[in-house]
Design goal:
41% helix, 266 residues, 11 helices, two-stranded antiparallel sheet, 2 domains
Length: 266
C-alpha cells in the first residue's frame, strides 16, 4: 500500500495517456529485481528509470545518475510485536529478534536509527538486538511461527501481521516525525531521462500528483485500483479488510509514552 500511487496510475491508464503513444510503459514489480536495492542497481545499469531507496542509488552513482521529481507516499510504516514477546518499552527490544524488509531499505534504516536513539544497537554494531532482513512474506510466516519477536514493516504487511498473526502495534513511525510526515516512497528518474523532451518526466510527476489526489480522498475507486494492481503483480489480491485497515490506520493504537526518548529525525 505504500506503493499505491504507481498502482493507481497504471490501473487508471494515467501514465500511458500522459506519456503519449510514442512512449512504452513497462511496469515491473520491484520484487522481480530482488527488492528495492536490486531495482536501484538495475536502474543504475540503465534498465529502470523509477525506483527507490533513493539514497542508495544516489551514492552508488556518485550523485550523477538520479533525481527525485515527485513524492509518492508519506507514512505507512509501523513496528509490530508478537503478544508473547512482552515488549512494552524500547528497552524490551534488547535480546529480541526483529525483522525488516531488506538490508539497507527504508524500514531497516529507520529501525536501526530508532534503536540507536534509544540506547540500543543491532548485533552487527556490537549490540544485543538481532535485526533480521527478511522478505515481507517470509516475515509473516516467521511471525506466525513465533520465530521472530517483532517487525518494522510497511503496509500492507503491518496490517497482515495484526490480522493474520496476532501482532500488536508498538509504534507508528509517523509519531517520530514533525507533523507526522515522512517519505515512504518517491518517484525517481535517471538523470538521462530528464534530458529527454520535457513532457516525459513532467507527465510522470503530473501523474503522481493526479493519482495522489485520488488516493488522498481514500476513495473506494483508489482502493479497488490498488488491489487490481496488486493482483496483477502478485497473482493474489488482498482481502478487503486488509485494504481498509491499511488506508485508515487507527492512530489510537499508538501510545506516545512508548516513544520517549526517541524523537528521531534522519
Amino acid at each position: 500500500m505504500t506503493h499505491a500511487q504507481p498502482l493507481v496510475g497504471i490501473e487508471r491508464g494515467t501514465y500511458k495517456e500522459e506519456l503519449g503513444s510514442k512512449s512504452r510503459l513497462r511496469p515491473q514489480p520491484s520484487t522481480q529485481v530482488r527488492g528495492h536495492r536490486g531495482a536501484v542497481r538495475r536502474r543504475n545499469r540503465r534498465d529502470i528509470r523509477r525506483s527507490e531507496p533513493t539514497i542508495n542509488g544516489y551514492v552508488q552513482s556518485g550523485g550523477k545518475d538520479l533525481r527525485i521529481i515527485a513524492g509518492a507516499t508519506s507514512a505507512g510504516a509501523t513496528a509490530r510485536h508478537a503478544g508473547a514477546a512482552n515488549i512494552n518499552t524500547p528497552a524490551d527490544f534488547a535480546n529480541k529478534k526483529v525483522a525488516t524488509p531488506q538490508l539497507g531499505n527504508t524500514q531497516d534504516v529507520a529501525l536501526r536509527a530508532w534503536l540507536q536513539a534509544n540506547g540500543l544497537k543491532d548485533k552487527d554494531h556490537g549490540g544485543n538486538v538481532q535485526v533480521i532482513p527478511t522478505a515481507n512474506a517470509d516475515t509473516l510466516t516467521l511471525f506466525q511461527r513465533g520465530d521472530i519477536d517483532a517487525a518494522w514493516v510497511p503496509e500492507p504487511w503491518a496490517t497482515r501481521l495484526v490480522q493474520e498473526a496476532g501482532g500488536k502495534i508498538f509504534l507508528n513511525e509517523s509519531t517520530l516525525w514533525p507533523n507526522g510526515d515522512f517519505v515512504t516512497t518517491q518517484l525517481v528518474v535517471r538523470t538521462k531521462f530528464l534530458k529527454r523532451p520535457p513532457g516525459s518526466h513532467r507527465a510522470s510527476a503530473d501523474c503522481a500528483r493526479e493519482d495522489d489526489a485520488v488516493d488522498q480522498r481514500q476513495s473506494e475507486e483508489a482502493k479497488k485500483l490498488v488491489n487490481q494492481g496488486i493482483k496483477k503483480a502478485t497473482n493474489a489480491a488482498l482481502p478487503d479488510a486488509v485494504i481498509q485497515r491499511c488506508v485508515a490506520e487507527p492512530e489510537g493504537d499508538v501510545r506516545p509514552d512508548r516513544l520517549e526518548p526517541a524523537q528521531v529525525g534522519r
